[in-house]
Amino acid sequence: MRYSRMLLPTLKESPSDADVISQKLMIRAGMIRKVAAGVYNLLPMGLRAVRKVEAIVREEMNRAGAQEVSMPMVIPAELWQESGRWDEYGKELLRIKDRHDREFCLGPTHEEVITDLVRREVRSYKDLPLNLYQIQSKFRDEIRPRFGLMRGREFVMKDAYSFHATAESLDAEYENMYNAYTRIFERCGLDFRAVEAETGSIGGRFSHEFTVLAESGEDAVATCTGCSYAANVERAEIREPALSAPSAGSAIERVSTPGKKTIEEVSAFLKAGTDKLIKTLIYETDKGLIAALVRGDSQINEFKLRNASGSSFVKLAEEDAVRKTTGAPVGFAGPVKLNIPIYADFNVRGMFDAITGANENDAHLLHVNASRDFRATYADIRNAAQGDKCPRCAGVFEIKRGIEVGHVFKLGTKYSEAMGANFLDEAGKEQVVIMGCYGIGIGRTAAASIEQNHDEAGIIWPKPLAPFDCEVLPVNVKDDETRKTSEALYEVLKKEMEVLLDDRDERAGVKFKDADLIGIPVRVTIGERNLKQGLVEIKERKTGEVKLVKVEEAALEVKKLLQS
Ligand code: ATP
Ligand code: MG
User: Fold this and answer.
1) Could you tell me which residues come within 8 angstroms of residue 519 by beta carbon, excluding any fewer than 6 positions away?
2) By CB distance 3.0 to 4.6 Å, which of 23, 156, 254, 461 could disulfide with 18?
């Protein structure tokens, strides 16, 4: 490709609205341009990198025995109503209507569509197992689209779904996918961890997130200091601490806290640490309202709360419901004399002399004692934090940041049961198909690679993801000899690899800066001075190592470097 013909608008400065390095560099290196929040154009350079990730993913999925299909992005509401997710999914689901007023959504994920396909086409155990995947655009109306391709609203995902007659068959495929994912991210040159995502109440290892370790990551991962346990903080099981509150203590005292609703406001107003507060949130569930309590310095985990309370969904209650149950506006709820089921985190069990809402406008209670003043079901309902105890060994958690690039998941019969995806077993008996699902964020993986591979000058593409293998850079295209040699080398290299020829009539400084910014692994610089001695310069972007080689040997040297 000739640089002069390419849409490759590089920028000297980072755009002011870019927050993370990969996003800044993707914009500066002319890879992406924003169309709307979380919606991007991929320019040629961006598409090339993304296609490299796609190719690796496709190759490894095919090698693992999965079959590629293509499903529509526009999905009729009926399918989502059948699974129950039309009502559950919330605002991330972009709902649209056609000209006949029929409802559809833009697919944020495709369990419903694939299950519908399989229930129509699969009859017998002989048709199973089956693993179908696609690499396709998803739409999720994310609450905070940001970080460029890392958290877009429209983004490309590889999503795979497997179908099985037996649980053992699913286990085997899960392992097969786990291994394929390991190969994929290894081939992408990423430093990653397979992190346990969902264990706990259901038991067994049935979900792993593949997480690239990076400071800018939005996910916090709890890793044990004592064993290999690693889990997303939202999912990490916490060993119950040995805590209990004394049965006696000071009597409860009511204090006026006008307008102080949040934990921070109350903590500042009453001059007490947030760890002295009990946070009380009212949730709506399929079984009615419940209260959830955590210490003021921790985060309620709705997934754990759902499990602990045995609900099929939990959702923060509306202002009206809170008022009716607690007798106070949002911000003043507390467990004392509250007449709904209370679920409290293990850490609340040991709290005494604590501060809670008074279930009364503008008032809080002091000296609340967990063992004396309210009854609660104690469970693990918060996110793991630094220093929490590991469930597997005597170690404690360290919290590291990471980017979730992939997810493997044993779905079981959630969708097949709801949608009636059955098969006939060997005995001719109807059984429900067992499912697994496996996702990879394609653009997010490319971005995560930049997070791990860059320097002040720009991107340092690992060879397998580089948009081009080699860049040929004639220093001065007005010099005949330089131009001829460059063109000749370009033609030779082009036969065996992807080459970018910077044939622009630009100052050398500009070209070098752009080359470092776009970060092609190998660069051949062709300048008048070296040429007089029959030499060209070969530079590796990653190491900065420079070699002078004979013109005739340049192509071979480039190939050697790319293979090393
Ligand atoms: P997150 O917790 O980051 O929102 P998720 O759990 O919603 O991710 P999945 O539903 O498991 O993600 O989707 C599979 C993969 O798709 C993720 O591992 C991630 O790589 C990618 N992905 C998810 N949401 C986005 C997004 N908004 N932008 C880009 N990639 C995404
Ligand atoms: Mg998400």
Assistant:
1) 29, 453, 454, 458, 459, 460, 461, 466, 541
2) 23
d(CA 300, CA 305): 8
User: Using one digit for the tens of pLDDT, what is the confidence trace for 431-462?
Assistant: 999 999 999 999 999 999 999 999 999 999 99
Give the mean pLDDT of 233-261: 89
> Strand, helix or coil at 275?
helix
DSSP 8-class letter at 251 = P
What is residue 47's predicted lDDT score, i.e. its pLDDT? 98
- In the reported structure, the alpha carbon of residue 197 is separated from the centroid of ligand 1 by a whole-number distance in angstroms of 13
3-state DSSP of 344-408: EEHHHCCCCCEEEECCCCCEEEEEECHHHHCCCEEECCECCCCCCECCCCCCEEEEEEEEEEEEE
For the cut 60, the answer to whether the pLDDT of residue 200 exceeds it is no
- Give yes or no for a contact between 224 and 384, defined as CB atoms under 8 angstroms apart: no
Angle at alpha carbon of residue 471, lines to 466 and 474, rounded to 5°: 165
Contact 380, 397 (CB under 8 A): no
Name residue 366's beta-bridge partners. Answer: 253
CA distance 30 to 467: 12
Burial of 70 (0-12, 13-18, 19+ CB in 10 A): exposed
- Its pTM stands at 0.82
pLDDT score, position 205: 53
- Can you give the three-state secondary structure of 499-530, one letter per residue? EEECCCCCCHHHHHHHHHHHCCCEEEEECHHH
Six-digit token string for 326: 């607690």
What digits encode the pLDDT tens for the residues 122-150? 999 999 999 999 999 999 999 999 999 99
**Is the predicted pLDDT of residue 193 greater than 90, yes or no?**
no
Over the stretch 11-51, which tens digit does the pLDDT of each residue have? 999 989 899 999 999 999 999 999 999 999 999 999 999 99
- The mean pLDDT value for 245-253 works out to 88
Which ligand has the minimum distance to the alpha carbon of residue 155? 1
CA distances from 429 to 110, 120, 163, 425 (A): 28, 17, 17, 5
Distance 403 CA to ligand 1 centre (A): 10
Tell me the C-alpha distance between 35 and 211, whole Å. Answer: 28
H-run or E-run covering 172? helix 167-187
Q: What mean pLDDT value characterizes the chain?
A: 95
CB atoms within 10 A of CB 502: 26
Contact 58, 183 (CB under 8 A): no
Give ligand 1 pocket residues (Cβ under 6 A). Answer: 109, 140, 142, 151-152, 155, 157, 404-407, 439-441, 443-444
Rounded to the nearest 10 degrees, how much is the dihedral formed by the CA atoms of 267, 271, 277, 280? -40
Of residues 93, 131, 112, the one with CA closest to residue 436: 131
